[in-house]
Design brief:
By secondary structure, the protein is an all-beta fold. Helix content is 0%, strand content 56%. The protein contains no helices and eleven strands. The chain has strands at 2-7, 10-12, 18-26, 31-39, 46-51, 57-59, 67-72, 77-82, 91-99, 104-106, 110-114. The strands form two sheets. Strands 2, 4, 5, 6, 9, 10 and 11 form a seven-stranded mixed sheet that branches. Strand 4 (31-39) and strand 5 (46-51) form a beta hairpin. It is globular.
Length: 116
């Protein structure tokens, strides 16, 4: 069984910063892609950023230049550094990992609220 534990969400003022973390544990063979997705009220879940096993990153245009994704392979942990947050970034953020068998695992979600 694989568990993803997310942390770092919360309430922040516009222009502020937050860092999300997601640690994977359990019976996971080898982690391939690691990423963050988000879902705002009334909207579909969307990709925010993904980092591949080789370290390549794919970042959504809406957050490019403001968000940075990184990973620690030794800890099976992925991070999302979020700067210059605005109200449109308010959403539940979900961690996702994919193993080499292309199985996907999701975290429980962490709320990020940007408000003055």
């Amino acid at each position: 069984q694989v568990q993803l534990v997310e942390s770092g969400g919360g309430l922040v003022q516009p222009g502020g910063s937050l860092t999300l973390s997601c640690a994977a544990s359990g019976r996971i063979f080898r982690v391939n892609d690691m990423g963050w997705y988000r879902q705002a009220p009334g909207k579909e879940r969307e990709m925010v950023a993904v980092v591949t096993g080789s370290g390549r990153t794919n970042v959504a245009d809406s957050v490019k230049g403001r968000f940075t994704i990184s990973r620690d392979n030794g800890k099976n942990t992925v991070y999302l550094q979020m700067n210059s947050l605005n109200t449109e970034d308010t959403a539940v953020y979900y961690c996702n990992i994919q193993d080499t068998f292309l199985r996907n695992y999701w975290g429980q979600g962490t709320q990020v609220t940007v408000s003055s």
